[in-house]
Design brief:
By secondary structure, this protein is an alpha+beta fold. It has twelve helices and 13 strands. 53% of the residues lie in helices and 18% in strands. Strand 3 and strand 4 form a beta hairpin. Helix 1 crosses helix 2, helix 7 packs antiparallel against helix 8 and helix 9 runs parallel beside helix 10. The N and C termini lie far apart (103 Å). The structure holds adenosine-5'-diphosphate.
């Protein structure tokens, strides 16, 4: 302030000196007045420069001003920079926060008091079928037109969640989306969505599985208890009693095989995949299952099948021996059980150019129509139900084979045509196959 007063005094004094130098009595006062006015105008111009700079709002383009105005410019520039930094920090924090919500597996939509979309993450947009950019500001009820959702919004009772059909891969396969609104702030709403398609599918599969297992066990149990009742109530001849006991033992065995396959499946599902561990001779595995198959053929087929090994170089395969044997013998036993007696069955291992290995079984059986092929490895899926039952099938064999193959990083393939036999194969990746040194 003192500087400004001195500056003003100097201007007035300079005006007065100029008036005195003019050598006119009245001009000293007029010169002092003119000096004072000149200073006020200059001060006003400096203030205008400052205001212009503030209006532009670019801190680095500040005017160079002396005295108080210079101090003001400096302090204002520092304040603007401080506020800018604060704003940048808040913006970065907001970006982080939004990125975290974007990464959420659940959908998040922010609605304003009128129900318009203020912000939505990509998950919500894809689950509810709108565009997270283009549809900002749109009424959510115009975009999600499911009647249950509109009724839910209108009722305003948001204590429960509702389920609607979301856009699926096909119109006939909608996704199942759970939605709940959470009011917050001044009549604003947070809409959360969750895709429960997979959970519901797993639940449906679990229910089907329990129903199938119960059905499979109930059939032999009913037969068994029927025989027990008959034997308890009617006196039987010895040969008839023996026949009944034989049939009862057959049913008990059927249940045993079913329970054993179920246990195998649950073990395969519940345990970690076998490591690289043991290297097993492919020929040893092949000979083992061939011998088993010939034994089975002799007990169930007349005449027995012609079962041959396809010649080829043996190699090492790595994995769990019992699992590989169980998968291979399931394929062999299917070939034997579904091919009429005397029919030809060939099995062997092949080494492919990419280093992968394949076990295959080709039979001269009835073959399988194309529409069944994709479903063969489902649990309890049977094409020929009566043949499966007659030959002691559980409907779980190919499910076990698929699990074993997948646990070893491989897969199951089927090539079949009605009336032209079938070829089932298990492929193992190159990492599980090693050539034998001659
Ligand atoms: P199953 O115990 O009934 O044989 P699988 O899971 O092993 O159960 O096989 C599923 C179904 O696939 C069988 O019920 C049968 O209808 C069909 N299938 C499997 N292997 C063959 C084959 N080699 N030839 C013809 N049909 C087959």
């Amino acid at each position: 302030m003192t500087r400004r007063a001195i500056e003003l005094a100097l201007w007035i004094a300079a005006g007065a000196v100029w008036g005195w130098a003019a050598d006119h009595p009245g001009w000293v006062f007029a010169g002092a007045l003119a000096g004072g006015l000149g200073w006020i105008i200059l001060d006003g111009l400096r203030a205008r420069q400052l205001l212009r700079w503030l209006a532009k709002g670019i801190p680095n383009e500040s005017p160079r001003l002396p005295g108080l105005w210079g101090d003001l410019v400096d302090r204002t520039r520092k304040l603007i920079k401080k506020l800018d930094k604060k704003a940048q920090n808040s913006e970065a924090r907001l970006d982080d926060f939004l990125a975290a919500i974007q990464a959420s597996p659940n959908g998040v939509v922010l609605l304003d008091a009128a129900g318009r979309i203020e912000w939505a993450n990509l998950t919500a947009a894809s689950q509810l079928g709108f565009d997270p950019q283009r549809d900002l500001g749109q009424y959510v009820r115009n975009l999600v037109r499911h009647p249950a959702f509109v009724a839910y919004l209108n009722a305003g009772d948001f204590d429960r969640e509702i389920q609607i059909d979301g856009p699926g891969p096909k119109p006939t396969q909608p996704t199942k989306i759970l939605l709940q609104v959470h009011p917050y702030g001044k009549k604003r709403k947070l809409l959360l969505s969750r895709d429960v398609t997979a959970v519901q599918l797993a639940e449906a599969m679990r229910r089907d599985f329990v129903a199938n297992v119960s059905h499979e066990i109930r059939t032999p149990l009913t037969v068994l208890s029927g025989f027990v009742e008959t034997m308890q109530s009617i006196p039987l001849e010895e040969d008839e009693r023996q026949r009944y006991l034989g049939l009862m033992s057959q049913q008990a065995q059927r249940m045993q095989v079913l329970v054993s396959d179920l246990l195998t499946l649950s073990r395969l599902e519940g345990s970690p995949a076998p490591g690289q561990g043991d290297w097993i001779d492919s020929d040893e595995l092949l000979q083992h299952v061939l011998q088993e198959a010939r034994g089975l053929s002799q007990t169930i087929a007349d005449p027995p099948h012609v079962i041959d090994a396809e010649s080829g170089r043996a190699f090492w395969v790595s994995g769990a021996k019992t699992e590989l044997l169980s998968a291979m013998s399931n394929l062999m036993s299917n070939a034997v059980r579904y091919t009429p007696g005397g029919g030809q069955i060939r099995a062997g291992w092949r080494l492919h150019a990419d280093g992968s290995g394949e076990f295959f079984v080709t039979d001269a059986g009835p073959g399988i129509a194309a529409e069944h092929l994709p479903r063969l490895t489902e649990r309890f899926y049977r094409v020929d139900r009566s043949r499966s039952r007659e030959t002691g099938g559980t409907g779980l064999g190919l499910a076990i084979v698929k699990h074993v193959a997948q646990r070893h990083g491989g897969r199951v393939d089927v090539q079949s045509e009605l009336g032209r036999g079938s070829t089932f194969s298990i492929s193992l990746p190159a990492s599980r196959v090693r050539r034998q040194v001659a």
